[in-house]
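Subject — a protein and its fold
Fields — amino acid sequence, structure tokens
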Amino acid sequence: MAKKVYTDEFRQSAIEMVITERNTIISVAKRLGINYHTLREWVQAAKSNAPTSLIPKDTPIEQRVRELEKENARLRMERDILKKATAYFAKEQL
């Protein structure tokens, strides 16, 4: 099987989609039609060679939003469990 050759511009745009636009490696690889492992190697190489200022960091607000979203999901799951339990025990009492 012949090895595919990608241009530097193509590689750079794929890496930027993952690092700066915060898309997942899987979604970018599928969208561009390249192997997941190939793209992952490009991203890892870019991160290790790049100064830290190029890699976006989470701001405290973004981090807090992510924490609240996780908590929200957990609380919804707990609420759904309690609704089902209430319905079950209410049915049992009739």
Remarks:
- The two ends are 69 Å apart (CA to CA).
- Residues 60-93 form the longest helix (34 residues).
